[in-house]
Design brief:
Length: 361
């Protein structure tokens, strides 16, 4: 017997409130609510979260029932959906946006019998854990590829929000590019959005007009930037999913994330009443991040260097933030022979030297 899925795509919560979240169908199944900040399309952040949901269903079969709510913005809408899911009797919730953190914390306190896992956050409770991926690992290696192929020496980045996770990705990518091309210059457009296809396209075109011949799309839950780069004939790197289909000629690499193993582990713990509100930060060693569809335009020596760096990161023999690291103010933030700690990475609030754009105030 197949598992049951209630799936709802809401552009606004007003529509969600009108339609309701559906009727829970089977009281003997373990019910999991999934809330995504954008539509779960064929690629992107929400797609990979949904792939994690699929892995749970494949593993547990008809023992689980999924309630999926898509395209829910941070703020009151998300808070209301969480409370509606709780009222519907879910046993567990997956909160798929950094911006859901504070409302998730309040909801978890209100419903101590429901277990929660939250993407990209840093607050925990006994029944609220969080999960991150070490995207700075794959970003460093993708940056190496960018340094190899750029002719202008200018890399353009279309970034979502200036939160520590994104800042870490930007810095690691830049350090990787500087490793293979020390004269790299980086320009960033901050979108302050996870999902704004038209603004993302406009920003990519603006960066290309400023001589960027490699574009990096960071947490844009759409292939818009990737498609623009293909159209304009410049290389592109993206986060979350493999987007080769949208740039068959000019995709340099895709930084893919995978949540299946983690989701399965947490669901099992919740079923067994052994859930703990821990923090998970998965990297290459955990098969949580990888670099996919690396361009054949890299020569054999370049590809060998990239493969060697991936192997070193996976084996724990190399850290992307190995010193010396200098920030935009010419201050040494990581000394030679040292590496940036996880605690410092989680609160990172500076950009490395070579990035022209400043952090938003």
């Amino acid at each position: 017997m197949k598992n049951r899925i209630n799936r709802f795509r809401f552009a606004t919560l007003a529509l969600a409130a009108t339609l309701g979240l559906g009727t829970v169908q089977a009281q003997d199944t373990f019910r999991i609510g999934y809330i995504y900040p954008s539509p779960a399309a064929d690629v992107g952040w929400a797609h990979e979260l949904d792939e994690g949901r699929r892995a749970v269903e494949e593993h547990f079969g008809d023992k689980v029932e999924s309630v999926v709510v898509e395209n829910i913005p941070d703020g009151p809408d998300a808070a209301r959906i969480m409370n509606q899911l709780a009222a519907q009797g879910v046993d567990m919730m997956m909160l798929g946006s950094f911006g859901y953190m504070n409302d998730g914390l309040k909801t978890a306190k209100r419903y101590p019998d429901i277990d929660f896992i939250h993407a990209s956050g840093y607050k925990t409770l006994d029944n609220l854990g969080n999960f991150l991926t070490r995207n700075h690992e794959s970003a460093y290696v993708a940056g190496m590829a960018a340094g190899y192929v750029t002719e202008s020496g200018v890399i353009g980045m279309v970034a979502s929000y200036a939160i520590p996770e994104v800042i870490g990705i930007i810095n690691a990518f830049t350090l990787g590019a500087q490793h293979t091309n020390p004269d790299i210059s980086v320009k960033i457009v901050w979108l302050n959005s996870w999902f704004d296809p038209s603004k993302a396209q406009e920003s990519a075109r603006s960066l290309i007009a400023q001589q960027s011949d490699v574009i990096f799309s960071i947490y844009q839950d759409t292939p818009s930037v990737v498609a623009v780069a293909e159209e304009e004939g410049v290389y592109v790197v993206n986060t979350s999913s493999d987007m080769k289909a949208y740039a068959p000629e000019h995709l340099l690499a895709s930084m893919k994330v995978s949540w299946g193993d983690y989701f399965i582990e947490q669901v099992q713990a919740s079923m067994d009443d052994s859930f703990k509100g821990d923090s998970f930060w998965g990297g290459m060693a955990d098969n949580a991040v990888s670099l996919e569809s690396i361009s054949d335009d890299l020569d054999a020596e370049q590809r060998a260097a990239i493969d060697a760096k991936i192997a070193a990161i996976t084996a724990g023999k190399f850290q992307p933030f190995s010193g010396p690291v200098i920030n935009q103010d010419d201050t040494e933030v990581v000394a030679e022979g040292q590496t940036l700690s996880d605690a410092d990475l989680l609160g990172i609030s500076w950009l490395v030297k070579g990035i022209e754009t400043k952090l938003p105030q």
